[in-house]
């Protein structure tokens, strides 16, 4: 396993609780849209075993052509040790990147794509949308639906409806409105449904989709293969 140590180049306050950390891109480091990584803070690998409290699984919110590895995360007032350190970290400090993988790349299969996210989960979809807006080939359209009870919606400079590109962006601030809209979107029985958020959010959104007849094969999750059976039924139950 290769560990890339790199410096924080910029810290952007997206909302009062959400920050984007732009990291210098290490030499020979690359990724594609929909990627995630392990972000580790200084001291995580001191001692016989890694200090897991200083490591977190994070989505990359930028594309390689943006000249930086972006990590967007919510940091609440009452935060974990990891988030507390991030809250006070400064430009120029070092962090480590490793285990970069992609489970939710943009599928170009001439189908409609629906991006369903909760809160800061929309950061996973930012690179997919940028990739699509730059090249719409073999994607019929994209519809993004994000629920954020804070009302401080993220990346509205990108996530806004663009009819010329067949891109529609929608934000809601409560669960009933979100689930009603998911049901409406799920009338498309051939679309692809990407879902990003907490495990509870995944389970509840998948239940709504499958009640509307959407199959497991149409649902894309940012999860390892061995985790998928915990969320997506297979066989007879996947109807």
Automatic annotation (TrEMBL):
Residues in the signal sequence = none
InterPro entries of this UniProt entry?
Answer: FNR_nucleotide-bd, Riboflavin_synthase-like_b-brl
| Protein known as | Dihydropteridine reductase
Organism ancestry: Bacteria, Bacillati, Bacillota, Bacilli, Lactobacillales
